[in-house]
Amino acid sequence: MGAGVPASVADDLLWLTISIVRGPAVRRLWQHVPARFKRLFKLWREMAASHLRTLPTRPTPANHPRSKP
């Protein structure tokens, strides 16, 4: 991987995100509370972003679009 986060971190975040989305989806079968899902998913995004900010920065290759001004 040339840019972004390490593959293991991306994989962990993907698994956790799928689990977090799956839980309310199953719970919706007996209790549908859209406002709560929206609030909790926003909280999860903030937690994931906070975790990503704690990771050491990785150099961006010169040919990657994000490295251009």
Properties at a glance:
69 residues, mainly alpha, 0% strand
What percent of residues adopt helix (DSSP H or I)? 55-70%
The radius of gyration over CA amounts to 16 Å
Structural class comes to mainly alpha
Q: Which regions are unreliable across 5 or more consecutive residues at pLDDT < 50?
A: none
In angstroms, what separates the terminal alpha carbons? 22 Å
Largest sheet: none
- Tally of strands: 0
**Net shape:** elongated
Spell out the helices and strands N to C.
HH
User: How much of the polypeptide forms β-strand, as a percent range?
Assistant: under 5%
Number of helices: 2
What is the averaged pLDDT score? Answer: 83
Describe the protein in words.
This protein has 2 helices and no strands. It is mostly helical and 69 residues long. The chain has a domain of 44 residues. Helix 1 runs antiparallel to helix 2. The protein is elongated and about 45 Å long. It starts with 6 loop residues before the first helix and ends in a 15-residue tail after the last helix.
Topology:
Elements lengths: L6 H21 L6 H21 L15
Helix pairs in contact: 1-2
